[in-house]
Amino acid sequence: MMEEEEFEFAEDLEAILHLTPEVQLAIEQVFPSQDPLDRADFNAVEYINTLFPTEQSLANIDDVVNKIRLKIRRLDDNIRTVVRGQTNVGQDGRQVKEITRDIKQLDHAKRHLTTSITTLNHLHMLAGGVDSLEAMTRKRQYGEVANLLQGVVNVLEHFHKYMGIPQIRQLSERVKAAQSELGTQILADFEEAFPSQGSKRPGGPSNVLRDACQVANVLDPRIKQEIIKKFIRQHLSEYLVLFQENQDVAWLDKIDRRYAWIKRQLLDYEEKYGRMFPEEWCMTERIAVEFCHITRAELAKVMRTRAKEIEVKLLLFAIQRTTNFEGLLAKRFTGCTLTDIPGVRKRPDSPLDPTNPFLEDEAGEEAGTEKDEDLTKKPKAPDNPFHGIVSKCFEPHLYVYIESQDKNLGELIDRFVADFRAQGPPKAGTEEGGAVLPSCADLFVYYKKCMVQCSQLSTGEPMIALTTIFQKFLREYAWKILSGNLPKSSTNSGGLTISSLLKEKEVSEAAKFTVDELCLICSILSTAEYCLATTQQLEEKLKEKVDKVLVERINLTGEMDTFSTVISNSIQLLVQDLDAACDPALTAMSKMPWQSVEHVGDQSPYVTSIIMHIKQNVPIIRDNLASTRKYFTQFCIKFTNSFIPKFINHLFRCKPISMVGAEQVSFIYCNLY
């Protein structure tokens, strides 16, 4: 029975202790053993066969069984020892845990004790500080109060979580009351030293007020703002009286006096009050900025009242003086007190091109005087945060400037027309022949001057209005100067006979345009090309100058299309002229009685006439379009596309025709090709 029970127990134990291959491998690495009983794939039958390989060996079965039982008892003893050892380890662990808990309790006690001592020290400092603060406030000892108040406020921050304690809450209320009293008291002191009524300043800088400013830095920011506001208002009160709207010095022609006055006031402030206010308050800049705001409002008011008296020269004078003053502010101050900094124009970084006024340096230097590498080494002008702080008031009145430019450009176009009529078209064989008209460059140089000047005045709606003016006169230039001066085409190809084709004089008369007219067409074409390219550059520059929200409203595509039309019309005139010059020869060829031709000649008069016209016109056009080779190529292509179908059409009209006549026509065709 015992053997059966042991066998069942072994089976149950084997089922429970079934280990994964990974765990079994780890055990073998930690406890290596050669005993078959320790193998994971132990087989009882193989093991018994190993112990009893023959029947005779069964005689020792009792000894083998006793050895195995002895081994089992030893294993049981080892297991029991290990289990008891683990029991002792648990007891040791509990003892260590209790020691650790005691240490933690001691640490907490130490921390709490330290916190209590620190809090008591802070409480002592707070109570003493509040008493001293109240006493110093009554005595106006602002120098001592400034440092003490900051310390009291810092200490009070440690007691935020203890505000439920009545004594702490009471101390906090006393601090707030002291701060409120200090604020009221300091404002009263400044009001007494710098009264708001009247322009006379009976008081002046003092150590008391200087220390009071240090206290204001610790108080509510509204106290500091109120001090600054009252002082600046009182400091600029004289300005409002001297430059009232009804005063003669308030008008634009005496705007320099405004800026001279503030310069004197700033020097006076720095000499008398520079050390009274803390440096981080930037009082000098604040005075200048407030002066700018007042000046902007006053100028806007007086210009609205006397709008009819504003002239262009007067407006530009006032704007120039104002922008100079804004530049002076940028050199003197950083703009740290500004709350609304206007947008600053950025200079383009495009390379310079002396042939285009819109790619020239805007710094006022002559084009071509410096190399590109020298220009890149020039330091970039810093942005001006004060740009527009006063000059913005002139923007509603820039329509006067725009209207003036409209008038000036109209007069300029009329002068161009008059000069062209007086001087006549460019002559063949001269430098002007086929070159860009000088008036074109003059127009765009004036455009650039207007654009730069207007962008310095405003980058908003006035720039859009100026763009509209530019568009208007670009179209007028295209119509009056370019298209209006293109030679008129006329047809004079009838009445020519074979005999007339042999006379050079009548052959030359067949071309309807003279050499000077051909030069004029080429010159207009070159000018239109220059205008097209420069108008594109003008559009890009206008978009750089104008505010970003207005960029989409800058569009000169219609004007560029107008110049493209002038180019196409010019090329078409050149093609029509040469095409029409060849028409008499083609017409005479189609009217010849080809059935009566008896001999094939080496040179046909029709071919001679056509080649003569081509040799006469094409070199002139080629030389005059030397700067615009692509348009000369277009001319050649368009003439070829027009002449060849017409020539083939006239060949089909040569009927009736004999065999000899057909050979002659074929010879003509080959000669032309």
Automatic annotation (TrEMBL):
Residue ranges, compositional bias (Basic and acidic residues): 368-381
GO CC annotation terms, alphabetical: cytosol; GARP complex
GO aspect biological process, one term: retrograde transport, endosome to Golgi
One Pfam family hit: Vps53_N
InterPro entries per the UniProt record, alphabetical: Vps53, Vps53_N
Domain Vps53 N-terminal as annotated: residue spans: 95-420
Span list, region Disordered: 344-383
Name recorded for this polypeptide: Vps53 N-terminal domain-containing protein
Organism of provenance: Oreochromis aureus (Israeli tilapia)
